[in-house]
Amino acid sequence: MRIGVIGGGAWGTALAQVAAHEGRDVILWAREPAVVDSINATHANALFLAGVALSPTIRATGDLGALADMDAILVVTPAQHVGSVLAAAPIGGIPLVLCAKGIEAGSKRLVGEVARAVHPDAPIAVLSGPTFAHEVAAGLPTAVTLACEDEALGEALATRLAARHFRTYASTDVAGAEIGGAVKNVLAIGCGVVEGAGLGQNARAALIARGFAEMTRFGLARGARAETLAGLSGLGDLVLTCSSTSSRNFSLGVGLGRGEAAAALLADRRTVAEGAFTAPVLREAARDAGVDMPITEAVCRLLEGAPVRDVIGDLLARPLKDEAG
Ligand SMILES: NC(=O)C1=CN([C@@H]2O[C@H](COP(=O)(O)OP(=O)(O)OC[C@H]3O[C@@H](n4cnc5c(N)ncnc54)[C@H](O)[C@@H]3O)[C@@H](O)[C@H]2O)C=CC1
Ligand SMILES: O=C(CO)COP(=O)(O)O
């Protein structure tokens, strides 16, 4: 099985490592020539996944044309760049496994919708779940959802992308897997704010539970299934990223909670905090769908520079309501 990987950030590199360890023939496309050179010459990606000795069988390239005869391609650029990178990739009907977590600004499309529009002949699958790249690259046990509407293809991909320490659970709920991964990044920023502002463990648990209620309301309105949202790609990933400074989104929130400005926090990042880009477009999509997402609204206000004290005060001052509402 020949696996192409588009994206040489932390996650693309970790997934390439899993596939190479399983004996797959792996070609990884990276945008930065320094990443291509470093993977080919020293079997390392110091820029995005420092400290990991990569399999020497992983070949890196800066030419998207080199992926034209792969059996499957993992798409692992940040969500906002999936459309432009895929448009430049001559990949015809090769199955695409989408691994980015986010919603495209402007179009309000999930990554799967973006990919379908660019490559209508390519079957689409989504790989998502609680997966810090450095843990996966280190071979620590990890489980993910592999969602594909075509059940037979989904099961084949789930089998071929699995490894002893990397369990894939098949699903046919593509929208559910995507929405969980996109929404949890926004909620992780909120949990980071709770941490940074010193609001306590009760507040963090409340935010996770009420955030999951938001994710579920939005997901159901967009055709997701409740059991997917309660699974690895939804609740599982929400719990992971709301609990650890290993999460870039959580860390961004910690800075906001301490009163640092979003623009300054985002300005000198080389790595991506997807929630910062997803939050405003998620707010718009939720308003379009008539779905109430107060935590998402609060995260947007914080990213826009509203003082933490005001935003938290407004959240707490909302009228009391039924928990199931
Ligand atoms: N790092 C992780 O633990 C995980 C990340 N993901 C998702 O994978 C996706 C990629 O994230 P990471 O690999 O962590 O990235 P990263 O934060 O390690 O690296 C940034 C990536 O963005 C790319 N990039 C920057 N500007 C670009 C542009 N204009 N066009 C195309 N690419 C551009 C860089 O080449 C690099 O690959 C994100 O959607 C993320 O949410 C999903 C699961 C785990
Ligand atoms: O998606 C992730 C883990 O599943 C990575 O989270 P961050 O992007 O917040 O680091």
From TrEMBL:
Purpose: Catalyzes the reduction of the glycolytic intermediate dihydroxyacetone phosphate (DHAP) to sn-glycerol 3-phosphate (G3P), the key precursor for phospholipid synthesis.
Binding-site list for sn-glycerol 3-phosphate: 101, 129, 131, 184, 237, 247-249
Binding-site residues, substrate: 101, 248-249
Record PANTHER family: GLYCEROL-3-PHOSPHATE DEHYDROGENASE (PTHR11728), GLYCEROL-3-PHOSPHATE DEHYDROGENASE [NAD(+)] 2, CHLOROPLASTIC (PTHR11728:SF1)
Family note: Belongs to the NAD-dependent glycerol-3-phosphate dehydrogenase family.
Enzyme Commission (EC) number: 1.1.1.94
Protein's recorded name: Glycerol-3-phosphate dehydrogenase [NAD(P)+]
Transmembrane segments: none
GO biological process: carbohydrate metabolic process; glycerol-3-phosphate biosynthetic process; glycerol-3-phosphate catabolic process; glycerophospholipid metabolic process; phospholipid biosynthetic process
Family annotation (Gene3D superfamilies): N-(1-d-carboxylethyl)-l-norvaline Dehydrogenase, domain 2 (1.10.1040.10), NAD(P)-binding Rossmann-like Domain (3.40.50.720)
Catalytic activity: sn-glycerol 3-phosphate + NADP(+) = dihydroxyacetone phosphate + NADPH + H(+); sn-glycerol 3-phosphate + NAD(+) = dihydroxyacetone phosphate + NADH + H(+)
Enzyme class: oxidoreductase
One annotated GO molecular function: glycerol-3-phosphate dehydrogenase (NADP+) activity
Residues noted as binding NADPH in the record, renumbered to the chain: 11, 31, 101, 133, 248, 272, 274
Organism of provenance: Sphingomonas aerolata
Active site: residue positions: 184 (proton acceptor)
PROSITE patterns: NAD_G3PDH
Matching InterPro entries: 6-PGluconate_DH-like_C_sf (IPR008927), 6PGD_dom2 (IPR013328), G3P_DH_NAD-dep (IPR006168), G3P_DH_NAD-dep_C (IPR006109), G3P_DH_NAD-dep_N (IPR011128), NAD(P)-bd_dom_sf (IPR036291)
Primary localization class, coarse: cytoplasm
SUPFAM superfamilies per the UniProt record, alphabetical: 6-phosphogluconate dehydrogenase C-terminal domain-like (SSF48179), NAD(P)-binding Rossmann-fold domains (SSF51735)
Record: residues binding NAD(+): 7-12, 133, 248
Domain Glycerol-3-phosphate dehydrogenase NAD-dependent C-terminal: 173-305
This protein's GO CC annotations: cytosol
Pathway info: Membrane lipid metabolism; glycerophospholipid metabolism
